[in-house]
Design a protein that fits this description.
Elements: E1 3-9, H1 24-30, E2 34-38, H2 59-80, E3 84-90, E4 93-95, H3 96-101, H4 103-106, H5 121-135, E5 141-145, E6 157-159, H6 176-181, H7 192-212, E7 216-220, H8 233-240, E8 249-254, E9 277-282, H9 298-303, E10 323-332, H10 344-358, H11 364-375, H12 381-401, H13 404-407, E11 421-422, E12 425-426, H14 433-441, H15 445-468, H16 474-509, H17 515-533, H18 561-573
Parallel strand pairs: 1-2, 1-10, 2-3, 3-5, 5-7, 7-8, 8-9, 9-10
Antiparallel strand pairs: 4-6, 11-12
Helix pairs in contact: 7-8, 10-11, 12-15, 15-16, 16-17, 16-18, 17-18
């Protein structure tokens, strides 16, 4: 493969991860040939604009002088190991002083947003790319993101995405009713305004970076929505067919049709159209524990996940002439925790991915066994036990955090249950409302609870196998066993939490409250949650999940599983209205 790239995506606004995947030698050893970094655009001075964006003695100048040497060091270190260097850039992000100076020429007068069609917007970005390519000639290219804009690590820059919005902020919610009723989706939620904006931006990037400066571009199609550029083949072709191909212009597309979730079909845009592509894969899955518990996903990523009707994986894609390689996120993605000290599980995923893409003639299993023997030093039956542990972990995660009785009704189009549990947060009745309503209407509540119990049984098997393996070193043995216990105890608490919420919903609908099942469920939850919380006292334990739901930094907290359990607990003691 021409490109086997890796990026560590540090949590926005938080201290950087301490990880081996920042070491270019580690990447080269695993088979990666390129390293991706962030924020090089934020050290551009825009001197050619005539605006002093970082005046001497200002906080902006102090930040610039502290931040820039890090950019120079990471480029030099990667090049020393023979790696290609790419920078992930959010568009549009510009110095605050520059935006204030050119406000009338680049911003919407009503909202203050930087607009693609204003007279100086692209002119300033031409200055940006001229400066970056002249100042950092060793950089091989840029990965351009337009779907999201994070400013948490760049305090003196402001910005927003260039593509006008059309439709709701969060994708799956507005498709629930259509999908669950079996209706065909309504008309696409994209229009020519969005298409034209993409085409204008792409043509500009192609001309400035590919043609004028000879730099490789990977344009990320990620946009959250199942019926827009990233996952909608008609929209993807409508945009990309209007852009003339260039040897240094390619598109970066996630292997899943939405985010890195299970029960989601393979992205239909892959291998289609007139332009080359790279495939994005996440090794530390943000919706699946981030390495706090075993979660081996490369069997599914490469060979196809068991739940998908069409078992398509990388093995079916990487040989296609349009596919140039893979863009891996070895660490990071999402927000917050769980935070890990030991990288065993994402390390395994990253190794197998890089080795497979480097030589697709080797099977996933062959590479996995090489890791077990050569990297972990396992022998004989322990190799087979480790293999079973890892494959079982993938199924245990699938059963524990997803809901087949609901997800299969969506026909692999979207996965709402992916969102009730994310990063280190556990949602409750509010986040699972559509799921529980569907289960009630279709009499599938018992099936869903059985699935959660099956997950616990699978985690018990994972924990048993971890104890049976004779690990080569104490550190690996300690973490493998601890992380297996983490998974078991977490998903035991989740199974009990689902039982509480379902029993509580049933009890709330009855005129005479039957407390027996709800009381039993609450007792099971209390015991399981306390047992899970006890892990925090153990050395090396990843940080734990919270019973509240996800909120962006600085936004109000959102109630989740803990509040739902508390609500149903107090319902037992209150009088029933007749």
């Amino acid at each position: 493969m021409k490109f086997i790239l890796d990026m560590v995506h540090h949590n926005p606004g938080e201290p950087p991860f301490q990880t081996r995947f920042l070491d270019p030698a580690h990447l080269a050893d695993y088979g990666f040939n390129g390293q991706v970094f962030k924020h090089i655009n934020c050290v551009a001075t825009f001197a050619a604009s005539g605006v002093d964006c970082f005046p001497a003695g200002s906080p902006e100048r102090a930040w610039l002088e502290k931040f820039t040497p890090g950019i120079e060091r990471e480029i030099a270190a990667a090049k020393k190991q023979g790696l290609k260097v790419f920078y992930h850039i959010d568009v549009f992000v510009l110095p605050r002083r520059l935006v204030e100076h050119f406000k009338n020429e680049i911003c919407d007068p009503q909202t203050g947003r930087i607009l693609l069609d204003r007279p100086q917007t692209l002119a300033l970005h031409k200055i940006l790319f001229d400066e970056l390519t002249a100042r950092f000639p060793q950089v091989d290219g840029y990965i351009i993101r337009v779907g999201e804009t994070y400013l948490f690590d760049t305090p003196h820059h402001i910005g927003n995405g260039p593509i006008p919005k059309n439709g709701p902020d969060w994708a799956p919610n507005y498709l629930y009713a259509e999908m669950l009723s079996g209706q065909a989706p309504a008309a696409p939620r994209w229009d020519k305004t969005q298409t034209n904006a993409y085409v204008k931006l792409l043509n500009f990037l192609r001309e400035e970076l590919c043609v004028r400066h000879g730099k490789q571009i990977f344009f990320r199609t990620w946009d959250i929505f199942p019926d827009k550029l990233h996952a909608s083949l008609p929209h993807y072709l409508d945009v990309t067919d209007q852009v003339e191909p260039h040897p240094k212009l390619a598109f970066s597309i996630k292997h899943t049709a939405l985010d890195f979730w299970r029960h989601v079909k393979v992205n239909e845009c892959l291998t289609e159209g007139n332009h080359p592509q790279i495939i994005e894969v996440q090794c530390q899955r943000e919706y699946e524990g981030k390495g706090a518990f075993p979660n081996y996903v490369m069997d599914g990523v490469i060979n196809g996940f068991e739940e998908n009707t069409k078992k398509i994986g990388l093995k079916d894609l990487v040989s296609h002439p349009k596919i140039l390689g893979v863009y891996s996120w070895s660490r990071g993605g999402g927000w917050y925790g769980p935070y890990i000290e030991n990288e065993l599980w994402p390390d395994l995923n990253a190794f197998v991915l890089a080795q497979f893409v480097e030589n697709p003639a080797r099977t996933e299993k062959e590479i996995f066994l090489a890791y077990a023997c050569e990297r972990l030093g396992l022998r004989n039956g322990d190799v087979n036990r480790f293999r079973e542990l890892c494959l079982t972990s993938a199924r245990a995660v699938l059963k524990g955090r997803h809901c087949a009785a609901f997800d299969r009704a969506l026909n692999e189009a979207v996965l709402p249950t992916a969102c009730w549990m994310r990063d280190d947060r556990l949602g409750g009745c509010d986040q699972l409302a559509e799921v529980f309503d569907h289960l009630d209407k279709t009499n599938l509540c018992d099936e869903a609870l059985t699935e959660k119990s099956e997950a616990v049984r699978l985690w018990e098997r994972v924990a048993f196998l971890a104890r049976q393996i004779e690990w080569r070193d104490h550190e690996t043995a300690q973490f493998a066993n601890l992380s297996a216990q983490y998974g078991l105890k977490l998903f035991r608490a989740i199974a009990a939490g689902w039982r509480v919420m379902m029993a509580g919903r049933v009890a709330a609908k009855k005129s005479a409250l039957d407390e027996t099942e709800l009381e039993s469920a609450l007792a099971a939850y209390d015991a399981a949650w306390a047992d899970y919380q006890s892990l925090a006292a153990l050395p090396g334990c990843p940080t734990l999940y919270s019973g509240r739901y996800f909120n962006l930094p600085g936004q109000p907290e959102v109630s989740g599983l803990a509040q739902s359990v508390a609500y149903f607990r107090q319902m037992i003691s209150r009088p029933v209205l007749k």
